[in-house]
Design brief:
Blueprint lengths: L1 H19 L6 E5 L10 E3 L2 E5 L13
Parallel strand pairs: 1-3
Antiparallel strand pairs: 2-3
């Protein structure tokens, strides 16, 4: 389900935005460790995905 969302929703939306802003389309996506997410770093075309360690995402989202 995550891969489908990534390739069918996230990637096209971000790619359209980057083209509109004349920015290169190289994306780094940081994700938490929710059960539906992949467990290892992965790369899908121009998107690099890094999984944050358990209980570390709060550093990027301090206002939970």
């Amino acid at each position: 389900m995550f891969t489908a969302w990534l390739t069918e929703c996230f990637k096209p939306s971000v790619e359209t935005y980057c083209l509109g802003e004349e920015m290169p389309f190289n994306i780094l996506l940081l994700i938490g460790n929710a059960p539906g997410y992949p467990r290892a770093p992965m790369e899908i075309q121009e998107i690099n995905i890094i999984v944050m360690p358990a209980k570390m995402i709060f550093i990027l989202q301090p206002i939970d």
